[in-house]
TrEMBL record:
Compartments where found: Nucleus
The protein, known as: General transcription factor IIH subunit 1
Ranges that cross the membrane: none
GO biological process, one term: nucleotide-excision repair
UniProt keyword annotation of Metal-binding present: no
Domain of life: Eukaryota
Domain named BSD: residues: 100-155, 177-229
Record keywords: Nucleus, Repeat, Transcription, Transcription regulation
One of the Pfam families matching this protein, by short name: BSD
Keyword Transcription among record annotations: yes
Record gene name: LOC112690480
Entry-linked PROSITE patterns: BSD (PS50858)
GO cellular component, one term: transcription factor TFIIH core complex
Bias (Polar residues) ranges: 330-340
Length: 455
């Protein structure tokens, strides 16, 4: 409760837990102050109140009960001298709280939904809530104010995996024409286009909304030669995306050059046209290439599109990548006249197919490397010999013989000691005969049994 809250209603006398005081209905809280104190004894926010209940008219006590979302209750008894005045004060408080509850219950439902979502997404946080709040170790307010922000802050530091770009995202674009041109582009497809083709994103920033609307921009994109790359170019300068296609072609050529430099095959490279007329069939090949230019453009488009999709999955590293992913060659490198360094390629091939631990001729010695020194290597690489096995068996047999001898000695030295005196066997037999039926000690018992039988 803050001191700046407006007091909407003040009612007294009111009793709460055997304490008399005054009940305050304010703009955000319901507060109770004892008569013997100037401080607030209890304070309940409206968003924590689930419902309110009142006592029956036939009961002697006039009571108002506040039920909270955690199923706890707070009971107030109106102790006016007249019952009618107590009923009137109780109804005034009830009606005013009933007017204020809907506003804060919507806020409480929204906060409750947000808290449920957080606990549902974070199982560790939900387990912590059960261990601390359900067991009444801490209050719910302390949990949400202290523990939850810390866990959410640590969770936000975790690097999330970026969503990739599907290879067939352009197939989801459908162009319809029934007198008027219509096209359907989802937001996900637009984002995929921006990720795969940065030149289109740059054009979108330059033209939308200053020169073109959003729909006009994408209409030009779908009608452009840049989108329909299987068409034969007409050399029109009205196409908005002509320079985008040129940028993508230059990037594609640079990627091919980089692949040729990093290729494992040091004897296969790009065939460059140096202007010589060594090939006598160049004219025929030129004619066939002109005839198949559509097929070549389609293959080039597929390869270029796949390359752009793969580049969206690459992680940007500012330390190792700079200025368009170009490879910088130092001045003292052995590259001359644009030809790849064969020695570097041979070294890469050697790294791929060579294993240092399997090549005894080449041994790289590292000063900082700690080597394991074994005094007896044969004990690690060889199994036990027959002599070693025989020694182990004989030692086990000798231990068994020693145990056997100790047991025999203990049995031989064992003596039976009895604390009570034992009678002789003959005396025991005579005693049993006297106690059996017909014996001298059993005559009186037999006479009594006979007389009982006659009765």
């Amino acid at each position: 409760m803050t001191s700046s809250e407006d007091v909407l209603l003040q009612v007294g006398p009111v009793r709460h837990k055997k304490g008399d005081g005054t009940l305050y209905v304010m703009s955000q809280h319901v507060a109770f102050i004892l008569n013997s104190s100037d401080t607030v004894a209890i304070s309940h926010h409206y968003r924590d109140i689930k419902m309110q209940k009142i006592s029956s008219e036939f009961k002697n006590k006039v009571q108002l009960q506040l039920v909270f979302h955690d199923e706890t209750i707070s009971l107030f008894q109106f102790t006016n001298s007249e019952r009618s005045e107590a009923m009137r004060d109780r109804n005034r408080v009830k009606d005013l709280i009933q007017q204020l509850l809907p506003k804060y219950q919507k806020q409480a439902n929204k906060e409750f939904g947000e808290k449920s979502r957080i606990l549902g997404e974070n199982r560790m946080l939900f387990q912590l809530y059960q261990d601390l709040v359900i067991t009444h170790v801490i209050t719910s307010e302390e949990f949400w104010s202290q523990h939850v922000p810390y866990h959410l802050a640590t969770q936000s530091k975790v690097i999330t995996q970026k969503t990739g770009v599907p290879n067939n995202f352009l197939t989801n674009v459908t162009v319809k024409s029934d007198g008027t041109k219509k096209f359907n582009l989802s937001n996900d497809t637009i984002q995929c286009i921006f990720k795969t083709y940065p030149a289109v994103r740059q054009k979108h920033i330059e033209y939308v909304p200053h020169q073109l609307t959003e729909s006009a921009f994408w209409q030009k994109f779908l009608e452009s030669h840049y989108f329909h790359k299987d068409r034969i170019t007409t050399g029109s300068t009205k196409d908005l995306f002509n320079d985008c296609a040129k940028l993508d072609d230059n990037l594609f050529k640079n990627e091919i050059k980089d692949l040729s430099k990093n290729s494992l095959d040091c004897y296969v490279g790009m065939i460059e046209d140096d202007g010589s007329d060594d090939n006598i069939n160049s004219t025929a090949e030129e004619k066939s290439s002109m005839a198949n230019i559509v097929h070549e453009n389609i293959i080039k488009r597929f390869n270029q599109h796949s390359m752009m999709v793969l580049k969206t999955c690459e992680k940007s590293n500012s330390n190792s990548i700079s200025n368009g992913n170009d490879i910088k060659v130092p001045s003292n490198s052995s590259h001359t006249n644009g030809t790849p360094d064969n020695a570097l390629k041979r070294l890469k091939i050697q790294e791929k197919i060579g294993f240092e631990d399997l090549n005894p001729e080449t041994e790289i010695i590292d000063i900082n490397q700690k080597r394991l020194k074994l005094s007896r290597v044969e004990s690690y690489v060889n199994c036990l010999t027959r002599e070693q096995k025989h020694d182990n068996t004989s030692s086990k047999l000798s231990k068994a013989r020693e145990v056997q001898k100790s047991i025999i000695y203990d049995v031989y030295e064992w003596s039976k000691s009895t604390s009570n005196q034992v009678i002789e066997p003959s005396a025991a037999v005579n005693t049993l005969g006297l106690l059996t039926p017909g014996g001298s000690l059993m005559k009186g018992i037999s006479d009594e049994s006979a007389s009982l039988a006659q009765l």
